Amino acid sequence: MAILLAMSSYFKGEELLREAKRQGAHVILLTEEKLRHDPWPWEAIDELFLMPNLSNLTDVIHGVAYLARTRKIDRIIPLDEYDVETAAFLREHMRMTGPGLSATKLFRDKLAMRVAIKAAGLPEPQFTPVINHDDVREWTWRVPAPWVLKPRLEAGAMGIKRVPNEGELWQLIEQLGDQQSFRVLEQYVPGDVYHVDAMTVNGETVFATVSRYGRPPLNVSHDGGVFMTYSLPDDHPEAQALIAFNRKVIQALGHTHGPTHAEFIKAHHDGQFNFLEIAARVGGAHIADLIEHTRGINLWGEWARLELMTIRGEAYQLPPIKNLHGALMVCLARQHQPDLSAYDDPEVIWRLDKARHAGLIVASPDAERIAFLRNSYVERFSHDFLAVAPAKDSHTQA
Fold it and tell me: How many domains does the chain have?
């Protein structure tokens, strides 16, 4: 029996655990003590191990190595972005199958992925490391403001600062002190942001689906509003262009196995797509739920299937794929348990059950109907539920 160790510092990936159990694996969940009472799929978990936090690498190595004395662990899968490097370190330490630290860096470190994409000749915003101050000054003289100052190792829009001028830039850099080198400075490119969620097997991207954000996540994070993303059909010209672009990115970064979530921006000034970032994981913010309801594939479950079929030496095959139109809307809510019962159109196929959050998914074969509903519902969400919280500077758990 294959033994799969899933580790997560956040509550997510339930379907991966369920599918691994359905596939006959022995499932171990390693998570943090504060997540003990979250609604994990207990029926799919054979063993639960808790630690104060998963950010203390030494403690995690000691703990997992102790488990491995009496369990032959076949795979380590990080469910959260912030556990990806820890899992890579464990694999290298224990000489296990899967991406190590060097491969993982290209999907975690925004500077590392920028350098690799530039070397491949693929379009992306201009950038510079925040290491040598003379280099930064020279870059700001060449690249006009505004800019964005990004943490290299945070996820999504966390910690990103919009910088309007050189004076404010140097104030921010000085405030960072010894943390300066953990930032990358980028050209701010106004545009529309898209994401491509994909699965790669033996170096071949066997599945990819394209969606477009209603507003760029950076804008939602900084200015507030409803998070919304909607799917594009495979035959849409923008979807075809981005699927091809995404394949080049995956090849440039050497990814051969597992899911990816990549973001691209279509610049307003010339209509060209630019690479923004990529992660070697399933997309967050319930994007996996949108994909499941529109394409008929749960990327968490497929990740588990891929890992276990690889262990058994079996060839992986995708399940049948649907091609519905759909949209996902989520926002922080003023109410503790927001009432979504008034959103009763038959296209509503999923509702978020989470305190202080409102969210739903609509899906239909009719693209115009989904376009109407997403625009209508975003406006209604803003009136009925929307609460605004300050943008986060770092990874924190509620």
Answer: 3
The DSSP string of 139-152 is HHHHSPSPEEEEES
357 occurs within a structural domain: yes
Q: CA-CA distance, 264 to 37, in Å (whole number)?
A: 37
Interatomic CA distance for residues 391 and 134, integer angstroms: 30
Distance CA(226)–CA(339), nearest Å, equals 16
CB of 21 closer than 8 Å to CB of 44: yes
End-of-domain residue from the set 83, 98, 113:
98
| Cβ burial, residue 114 (10 Å; 0-12/13-18/19+) | buried
Claim to verify: residue 33 and residue 138 sit in the same structural domain: no
- Residue 83 CA to residue 99 CA, distance in Å, equals 13
Query: How far apart are the C-alpha atoms of 388 and 186, rounded to whole Å?
Result: 26
pLDDT at residue 397 in the model: 35
Amino acid letter at 232?
L
Confidence bin at 388 (pLDDT 50/70/90): confident
Q: Which of 36, 29, 26 is nearest to 8 (CA)?
A: 29
> Does some domain include residue 116?
no
Residue 312 sits in a domain whose CATH number is: 3.30.470.20
Query: One-letter amino acid identity for 141?
Result: W
Q: What share of the chain is helix, strand, coil (3-state, %, to 5)?
A: 35, 25, 35
Expressed as residue numbers, the domain containing 24 is: 3-98
273 beta partners = 266
Q: Are residues 155 and 200 in the same domain?
A: no
Judgement on whether residues 182 and 201 belong to the same structural domain of the protein: no
Q: What is the pTM of this model?
A: 0.94
User: Hey, which bits of the chain come out as E strands?
Assistant: 3-8, 26-32, 47-51, 75-78, 127-129, 147-151, 161-163, 183-187, 191-201, 204-213, 227-232, 257-267, 273-279, 325-332, 348-351, 357-364
Q: Identify whether residues 262 and 232 lie together within a single domain.
A: yes
Q: What is the pLDDT of residues 31-87, one digit of tens each?
A: 999 999 999 999 999 999 999 999 999 999 999 999 999 999 999 999 999 999 999
